[in-house]
Design a protein that fits this description.
alpha/beta, 2 domains, 8-stranded mixed β-sheet, 7-stranded mixed β-sheet, 16 helices, 38% helix, 15% strand, NAD(P)-bd_dom_sf, EC 1.4.1.1
Length: 404
C-alpha cells in the first residue's frame, strides 16, 4: 500500500477496515452520537471511517449536527459515510438504542434517555454521584464504562489508549509551564551542555507513568518514577533500559523527591477505584517555587492533596507557589488523535454487539463488555461503585444467567 506522509493517521483505520468488513450483523443496531456538551470536550466516539464500517455491517448511525467539528470531522464526511445527521440531541436519543459518548451524561442529557437504552461512555468515578447512578437504574439503562472495559488479557484497552496520550502530553504541558512566561522557574526540561536538565518525578508506574517517562527521557530530563508496586517499577525499569531511577512511594522517599523535583506527574491510580492520595499538603508546601504539578488522575479523585479539577480554558492555579495543572480530560486537547484511538477500540465492540444479536446477548459471551458493565436492568453491578455510595449491587453474571 502506497502511503503518503500526511496519510499516516489513516493507517490504523485502513487496517481495521480490512479486518472488519464482513456480511450483515445478526441485528441492526441504531447507534446515536450526540454532540458533547461537557465543558471543553472536543472528542467524538467514532470517525467517519468507523461509521462506514458499521454502516456496511447493517447498522444505522445518527449523529448530531456538528458533533465532530471540534475534532476536524465535518458533517459532510459523516453523511458520506452513511450516517444520518440529526439536528437536535432529542432526535439522537429518541432514534437510538445504543448511545456512544465521551463524557458522562449531563443533567440535560439524562432527561433525554429512553428507558432500556444502552450507554457506552466514561464514568469519571472521582466526580460521580449517587444521583447519577440512581437515575440510570431507574430508567433500566445498561451502562458500560470506558474505565471498566477489560479483556481476557487483563488489559483495559480504552483506558490504555487514553493513558498513552495523557502520559505523553503531561510532560509537554509541564515543560510549557516551567517557562517564565507561564509563571514557572524559567528552565528547560532537557537542559543544554554544561547546564543540568530538569528533574521529573512521576508518581505511578502504570501506562500513563510509562509514557510520561518515555516523553521526559526524550526531552533529556532526569526521570524518577515512584510506585508502591515493586513489580511495576521493575517492569518499567527494564522496558526503559534502566534510564530512569525508581523508588518505592513511601512517605520518606516522597518527601525527599518532592523537595528537589521541578515537575511532578501524578499518575497513581487503582483500576476501577478512586486514586490513592500520595502527596500531602505539607509535601507540596516544601516544593520549589515555580515547580509544576500535572495531576493526570484528577478525574479519579487525584493523587495530590492540593489538586482540584480545572479546565482547558482555565487549566492552572498556584498553591504554595507551585503551579497545578489538573485538567481531567487531557486527551480532549488533541481530539483528532484521541478520536482515532477511541474509534479503533470501539468499532470491534459494537460489531460484536450486533453479531451477538444485541447488548444482552453480547454481555453473555464478551468478557470485556461484561467487565465494563456497571449498570444493568435497574441494578448496579460494580461492587466498588456500590461501596462508594452505600448502594446495593448484583453481579452482572448472576443477572444475565437469571434472564432478568
Amino acid at each position: 500500500m502506497d502511503i503518503k506522509p500526511l496519510d499516516t493517521e489513516q493507517i490504523g483505520l485502513k487496517t481495521l477496515e480490512k479486518h472488519l468488513m464482513r456480511s450483515k450483523s445478526e441485528v441492526s443496531l441504531k447507534i446515536g452520537l450526540p454532540k458533547e456538551i461537557s465543558f471543553d470536550e472536543r472528542r467524538v466516539s467514532l470517525t467517519p471511517g468507523g461509521v462506514s464500517i458499521l454502516k456496511a455491517n447493517g447498522h444505522e448511525i445518527f449523529i448530531e449536527k456538528g458533533a465532530g467539528e471540534d475534532a476536524n470531522f465535518p458533517d459532510r464526511e459523516y453523511a458520506d459515510a452513511g450516517a444520518e445527521i440529526a439536528y437536535s440531541p432529542e432526535d439522537v436519543f429518541k432514534k437510538s438504542d445504543l448511545i456512544l459518548k465521551i463524557a458522562p451524561l449531563t443533567k440535560d442529557e439524562f432527561e433525554l434517555l429512553q428507558p432500556g437504552q444502552a450507554l457506552i461512555s466514561a464514568l469519571h468515578m472521582g466526580s460521580q454521584t449517587e444521583d447519577y447512578l440512581k437515575a440510570l437504574t431507574e430508567k433500566s439503562i445498561t451502562g458500560i464504562g470506558y474505565e471498566f472495559i477489560r479483556g481476557e488479557d487483563k488489559e483495559f484497552p480504552i483506558v490504555r489508549m487514553m493513558h498513552e496520550i495523557t502520559g505523553s502530553m503531561s510532560v509537554q504541558i509541564a515543560a510549557h509551564y516551567l517557562e517564565s512566561m507561564s509563571g514557572g522557574q524559567g528552565i528547560m526540561l532537557g537542559g543544554i551542555s554544561g547546564v543540568p536538565p530538569a528533574t521529573v518525578v512521576i508518581l505511578g508506574a502504570g501506562i500513563t507513568g510509562e509514557y510520561a517517562a518515555r516523553t521526559a527521557l526524550g526531552y533529556g530530563a532526569q526521570v524518577f518514577v515512584m510506585d508502591t508496586d515493586l513489580t511495576a517499577l521493575r517492569r518499567l525499569e527494564n522496558a526503559l533500559d534502566r534510564r530512569i531511577i525508581t523508588a518505592v512511594a513511601n512517605h520518606q522517599y516522597l518527601s525527599t523527591a518532592l523537595k528537589f523535583a521541578d515537575i511532578i506527574i501524578g499518575a497513581a491510580m487503582a483500576e476501577g477505584e478512586r486514586s490513592p492520595c500520595w502527596v500531602t499538603d505539607e509535601m507540596v508546601a516544601g516544593m520549589k517555587a515555580g515547580s509544576v504539578i500535572v495531576d493526570t488522575v484528577i478525574d479519579q479523585g487525584g493523587c495530590v492533596a492540593t489538586s482540584r479539577p480545572t479546565t482547558h480554558s482555565n487549566p492552572v492555579y498556584s498553591e504554595h507557589d507551585v503551579i497545578h495543572h489538573c485538567v481531567p480530560n487531557i486527551p480532549a486537547n488533541v481530539p483528532r488523535t484521541a478520536t482515532y484511538a477511541l474509534n479503533n477500540v470501539l468499532v470491534p465492540y459494537i460489531l460484536a454487539i450486533g453479531n451477538a444479536g444485541g447488548v444482552k446477548e453480547c454481555l453473555w459471551e464478551n468478557v470485556a463488555l461484561r467487565n465494563g458493565t456497571y449498570s444493568y436492568k435497574k441494578h448496579i453491578t460494580k461492587k466498588t461503585l456500590a461501596k462508594m455510595f452505600d448502594m446495593p449491587y448484583r453481579e452482572i453474571e448472576m443477572l444475565i444467567a437469571s434472564q432478568i
